[in-house]
Amino acid sequence: MYLCPVEKILTNNLIFSMKTRLLLLSFFVTCVCGAWAQGPNNTGTYYQSANGKSGENLRTAMSAIIANPKVVSYDGLISAYELTDTRPDGYVRDWYSCTTSYRHGKDTGGYKQEGDSYNREHSVPQSWFSKRSPMKSDIVHVVPTDGYVNNRRSSFPFGEVANVTYKANQDYCRLGSSKTPGYSGTVFEVPDEIKGDMARIYFYMCTCYKSQCGNWSGGIFTDDGMVSWELNQMLEWSRQDPVDAREIARNNAVQEVQKNRNPYVDYPGLEEYIWGTKKGNTFSYDQYEGGSVIDVPTVAMPTFSPDAGTYYNNVTVTISCATEGATIHYTTDGADASANSPVYTAPFKLTNTSTIKAVAIKDDQSSYQAAAFYLVTSEQQGEDPEPAIDGEIMLNADFFGTSYTGAINSSDNLDLEGTENGVTIVYSLANGQNRYANSSQIRLYPNNELRFSVQQGTITGLEFVFVDGTPNKTLKVGSTTFDDGKWTGNAQQVTVMFGSSSKHARISGVKVSVAGGTNIETLQTTSLSGKRVIYNLSGQRVANPTHGIYIVDGKKVLIP
User: What is the pLDDT of residue 285?
Assistant: First the structure.
């Protein structure tokens, strides 16, 4: 298979993630002395309830196991990618481009060409499921990609291209007419090295969301899974590009993010039992005979503590292995570790930026190669409170995640809701009233309501951007009412009520100012035991904080 230059160097990205603590075991681990079977990748009895099932019953059983993932917010995906999609050099793993080196949480935003910024790509376009949760932020299928290439993909289905109309740098991805039998429209083709990954993501989507996917638009998903041409394509992609170590590592990291797994990664070839050549065979969760089974080491991959990331001045690194009696060999210069590399005996201090690699060896069996990138910097910015967010939010169908354009009669009091820059806006309607939203604005009728709220910080100002119309309106903060469409103050929630006149107003946006959060908790250093993610206010990860203001597990705290 073709590997672009970056991928040749940065293979097996998330295997090298320090967060992957789950053991990588063989697929045949039996019960000994009454102990539970370990399951693939140390999943234990996670899949036990699917035991003995086959065909559609197996898909139903798997759906019950992995459904209802505890997804992070859509905004939270940017931070979660540090766990699931980090290359060994610390940059973002880009699924659609092999010529980028994006920094986590920084190189996002606008783009004019490939290489400008990255964004969150819904491998199953969110327009197909109307942006509903949890699909909107399910990190299994929402992956980081170059923004420009993602835009060129649009919402075209995956397939193999005959006549190319667009290709990414070095022909990594391409767009054009389909050569896949059964479909002649435009398709988007991913590189060979992730075709199997994408296939198993699609198998996951029509299993996790089995009761919903038949109602999605896009013409790809059905109650049974997928339309035949796409299903056949995905089955073939999965056979040609079997599960590899990088995919296993991402699956382990996904479980840390949202507490579920992709069974098609844990059980290579599982799709054959549901849609393919083994459809009549019975599934056994701990005595599994799969299709494209890879040789998984029985020695656990080494893990690093603290996690890879950016540190101030120095960081002391500990390497461990869950396999008892294994010897750890490591390097600090980025070279692959082997049995000839130095033996790890004790924690060591890094004072310069380094890539550490390590393997664990026992009885001539070697683990997967593990790696972690530590950026050590002497630059430390001040720890002032975060600046206020001051921006314009566009109010339209895309913002609220609506699947319609035009006036719709509502009979169920359904609220429309969207979030941007930490501000949540709810557009409420009384029972039976019309609503209107398109690509450029929403229309507010008499007695309509908009609620603005923030979870952290306070709203300090609102100003509406009207396309036309200025109906009677009031703004309410708690029990206090204000007139006009412009407000300044300090509150966590502001409600906008439109009067009873017969007029309406079309609003294209609203200018919202939000002050940074001031709710700082106090945390003693004794409370930092266990696995805690700690940053200073400049975004640098801190292994052993002393005193000051830090971000601990996503919350701002004061360590006295």
Answer: 87
Least confident residue range of 39-48, 131-140, 418-427, 515-524: 515-524
Pairwise CA distance, residues 300 & 321, whole Å? 6
Q: Which residues of 232-254 are buried (b: 16+ CB within 10 A; e: fewer)?
A: bbbbbbbbebbbbbbbbbbbbbb
458-491 burial string, b = 16+ CB within 10 Å, else e? bbbbbebebeeeebebebbbeeeebeebebeeeb
Task: Report the Cα–Cα distance between both ends of the chain, in Å, rounded.
Answer: 55
Q: 201 is written with which tokens? A: 């993501």
Residue among 343, 251, 345 nearest 14 (CA): 251
Taking the C-alpha atoms of residue 248 and residue 262, their distance in angstroms, rounded to an integer, is 9
Q: What is the mean pLDDT of the chain?
A: 78
d(CA 487, CA 32): 69
pTM beyond 0.70: no
CA distances 40 to 47, 92, 244, 246, 322, Å, are 10, 27, 13, 15, 16
Interval 307-316 mean pLDDT: 75
Dihedral, CA of residue 108, residue 110, residue 111 and residue 116, to nearest 10: -30
Cα–Cα dist 368/299, whole Å? 8
Using CA atoms, how far apart are residues 97 and 121, in angstroms rounded to an integer? 12
Q: What angle do CA 336, 323, 86 make, to 5 degrees?
A: 45
